[in-house]
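User: two proteins, same treatment. go.

Assistant:
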Amino acid sequence: MKLIVGLGNPGSKYSDSKHNAGFLVVDELAGKWNIEISTRKFDSFFGKGIIKKYSVVVAKPQTYMNLSGVAVERLARFFKVGTDDVIVIHDDLDLGFGDIRIKVGGGDGGHKGLRSVIDCLGGPELTRIRFGIGKPVQKEMTERFVLEPFSDDEMKHMSGLITRACDAVVEVVSSGAQIAMNKFNVRVTQNSSKEVGA
C-alpha cells in the first residue's frame, strides 16, 4: 500500500494559495481514480482506493502546514505504511514555476511542512513530488509569497501542470520511484534535447 499525501493548509482562505499545490494535485488525482477523500480521522481527510491495481490511501492533512507530520505519522501507523511507501506532494520554492520533479530522500529544503513529515516519520526516505512555484525577489517576502494565490498568467498553465504531477504520482505507484524519476525529471530545451533535472 502507498500513502499519498498532498500538503497544504485547510480552509477557504488558503485554498488557491501556492502553498496548497499539494492539495490541488491530490484533489485532481482522487477525481481521476474515483477515490473519495471524505473520511475525517487522524487529523486528515482521506480516502482509500486503487491506482493501476495498487492499493493507496490519499490524504490531505488538516493540521496546518507546519504540523503536517503529525497527521502523516498517524495515517502511516494506522495503515502500517513504511516511510519508503509514503509519497508527499508539496510546493517547492527552489524550482521554477511549472517544474515538476520527483525526489527520494534528502533534506527538507526549508519547507516546514516537509520538515514536519520527515521529523515525525523518523527519516527522509519518503518519495516527494515537487511542484515548482518559483520564489520571491526578496527572501524576507517568502512567507507572504507562498500564501498568495497563483497569478492569472500562472493559472492558465495550472491544469496541465496538475495533470503532469498526477501522472508522476501514478508512475511512482505503478513503476517505482527510479523509473518515474527517469521519465519525469527531464526538461525539454530550446533545441528539443532533454536535460536531466535536479
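Protein 2:
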Amino acid sequence: MKKISSDIAFTPPIKAIQTEKGSREHYARMEEAGGWHTRITPELEEFVAGLDMFYMGTANTDGQPYIQYRGGPTGFLRVLDDATLGFADFGGNRQYISIGNLSENPKAFLFLMDYANRRRIKVWGTARVVEDDPELLAKLADPSYRARVERAICFSVEAWDVNCKQHIHQRVRVDEAD
C-alpha cells in the first residue's frame, strides 16, 4: 500500500473512525491530491518567522506524552533547510523531560499557534538534541534576547498541515495590544 504523508497521523484505527463518523471520504480526496506537505515551503517559513512561541510534544518509550511550551524572541524557531527546523533551547525549570524523552524516542510534534491571526499549523517529525555544535548554537542564538542557550533542538519535518481556525480564540500579545 502506498505511504501517504497523512498516514503519520491517520493510522488504520483513525481511518476506521473517520469512516464511521463520515469524514474519511473528505480526507481520502486530500490524500489522492498528494496529502500533507513534507517539505518546508515559503508559507511555512513565513509563518515560523513570526512566532515567539510554540508547543512541542514528545513521549517516552512507554508512550507517556509530554507537551512543552517553548518561548523566545520572535523568529527563534528557524528554518535550517527545506526539511529541518531548529531552535535555541533556553535554560528553564531544569526538569529535562523533553530532552530525556528525545534521548529514548525521537518522534516529536510541533503545534504552532498564531493566536492573533487565528492560525495553527501541525508538524510531525523527529527531533534531536544538539549540545556540541558551537556554529549551530550561534546561528540559533539571538544576542538581544537575555536567556542562556543551553543547547539546540533540530526538528526533521516528516509532514505538516494547516489546521482550520475554528474554535481558536483570538489573543494578542500585550506589546501588540492597543
